[in-house]
Amino acid sequence: MHTTSATRTLAGISVPRTPLVERALDYAHERCEPYLFNHVVRSWLFAERIGQLQAIEHDAEVLAVGTLLHDITLNERFAGPRRFEVEAADLARGFATEAGVDKLRAQQVWDCVALNSTPSIGLYKEAEVSLCTIGICLDVVGLQYSSIPSSEMKAILTEFPRLGMKRKMTMCFCHIAATQPETTHDNFVRDFGERLVPGYKVAASSVDLVANAPFDE
User: Fold this and answer.
1) pLDDT tens for each residue of 62-95
2) How many helices (H) and strands (E) does the chain have?
């Protein structure tokens, strides 16, 4: 387990302070609009704090990088060709590798990012991936909301306000569904397309893929 003793307090939460984490913060700040930057920071704080409260051993740098960089492709410029989580995961792994992170830890960053919106898998992976998933899902849908003490929740939301996140994030999901529907047939963005995007239609469904497999039976 990779550990670090260098820490600082952010919105009342003790988090690692290393060159890698500071670089990830800067990278996210450069590439995310304000509401999205606040989202990834809150997600990181929630993930790290739940790890502390539940005494879950984890690589705090991997958790920080994966959480901070998980949405760097979530914007209205997204053009695929793969689902936005995979595109972001490749960018995050590249960032980690260029920063000198070894292959195993860089792959853990990839898993954190690629699986962040798939809790049915991510919650059952390694501690770093599971905590990343929890922190992100807490901020988006309220997963384990009561795990964070109310005073700490208030401090985090005050320092990193939501800035209309529900509306702005929905706009991004709808943009992806409208312009890159082929990336949405097997993930949650499909729900936004079906409900909110006129004329939305995916190229294939899982039913079609099974029925059209090139075998006699």
Assistant:
1) 999 999 999 999 998 888 899 999 999 999 999 9
2) 11, 2
Phi, psi of 7 (to 5 degrees): -135, 165
| pLDDT tens by residue, 200-212 | 998 777 888 899 9
**Closest C-alpha to 23, from 70, 58, 61:** 61
Distance of CA 2 to the CA centre of its chain: 21
- Which is nearest to 148 in space by CA: 48, 42, 43, 50? 50
Angstrom distance (rounded) from CA 9 to CA 11: 7
Residue length of the chain: 217
Query: What is the pTM assigned to this prediction?
Result: 0.94
201: phi > 0 → left, psi -120 to 50 → alpha, else beta; which?
A: beta
